[in-house]
Design goal:
This protein is α+β, with helices and mostly antiparallel strands. It has 2 domains: about 5-85; about 140-180 and about 200-315 and about 355-424, 2-Layer Sandwich (Major capsid protein gp5 fold). Helix content is about 40%, strand content about 20%. The protein contains 13 helices and 17 strands. It has helices spanning about 5-10, 20-50, 55-85, 95-115, 120-125, 140-155, 155-160, 220, 230-250, 295-300, 305-310, 315-325, 375, and strands at about 140, 165, 170-175, 200-205, 210, 215, 265, 275-280, 310-315, 335, 345, 350-355, 365-370, 375-380, 385-390, 395-410, 415-420. Strands 7-8-17-13-9-12-11-10 form an 8-stranded mixed β-sheet. Strands 1, 2, 5, 6, 14, 15 and 16 form a 7-stranded mixed β-sheet that branches. The protein has a two-stranded antiparallel ribbon with strand order 3-4. The longest helix is centred in the first third of the chain and has 32 residues, at about 20-50. It starts with a helix and ends with a strand.
Amino acid sequence: MNQQEAAALETKGVGEGASALELKDAFDDFLTSFEAFRDANDARLDEVERKLSADVVTEEKVARINDALDGQKRLLDRLVLKGRRPELGPANGTGRGSVEASEHKAAFDSYIRTGEMDGLRRLEAKAVSTVTSPDSGYLAPPEVEAEIGRRLAIVSPIRAIAGIRTVSGNFYRKPFASTGMATGWAGETDARPETSTPTLVELEYPVMELYAMPAATQTLLDDTAIDIDQWIAAEAEMAFAEQESAAFVSGDAVKKPKGFLDYTTVAEASWSWGNIGYEVTGVSGDFAASDPSDVLVDIVYALKAGYRQNAHWVMNRKTQGEIRKLKDTTGQYLWAPPATADGRATIMNFPVAEAEDMPDIGADSLSIAFGDFSRGYLIVDRLGVRVLRDPFSQKPYVLFYTTKRVGGGVQDFDAIKLIKFGTA
């Protein structure tokens, strides 16, 4: 596949409303490229076995097809995402709730387009709301908040697999039995022996303010054909997703969530509660030269069986590209393409979540995570998305300071394991 073909694939279907035919064609192209990749990589491995090194031309061909596969997967992701974006509309149903929702939506639309605040003020006075004020912005309609949350779940890789709680305050506290629940067996008429008291720890997740500031011209706002709710959600989506994803992976808990890579890591043999265990590849900055896939098997079975049922791999595209070249002891590739256009690639039959904020492979890097993130990592969302209209700071543009509050951190240290590209 040459660069012109790859570029064409990148731009194909980028327009709004990707069709089913476009999605099918893109998926077929992806599978065809994967077959070409396997053939080229088989030739490379054969050359390594026969000559102890691969031909430079073969290496370049494998790398080129590998990069093209990544480009085609990005295209598939975009097309699938477009197919999942319904237009926002008024609240469904009848009765008081839907009437108030429609009134809120109309008042919010007027505020965004013209700066008229009377409608939102009346609604807040009716609800005796103390949550918002003209200085901090107004609550977006529930359907806008829901659409932003839904979009984030699709494009934010960690949010798509983590546990999520919604709160109305500024933090969430959760007791957790770090030693497991105290249980035992007894006959129907037997005396119940006293069980040991479980060790409870209280985990706290403060929520921090995440903001985006999309800009619009007054001409855009005056165009009644443009769905302002949809526009706000789309503009905030990527800004929120990029910041969230980075924080959930490596955030330092300073005005942001605490990422799972920011916790203390220890060799799996020395694991204890409060730390995240890892297995090593045995080579600094690379897989082992002999049986490189062994460490992937080790990390799968380092995770307890109860967590493996819903486990995911988490890594960036470059790391996934390296694993794509590996085979198991039977000669089968460990990496398998998604079975459907909207599916996930798998490694050893476990799905892969692509998180570009995971570090590249390097000396002592923690480039691969594996675990049940729905039990291992908790994301805490505070109710409400606020929007403050600012027509003054960057004339002639109107800025929309859009904020949501979110926190996060590890909740079960036994549910996530890491692979360290090092020797100890």
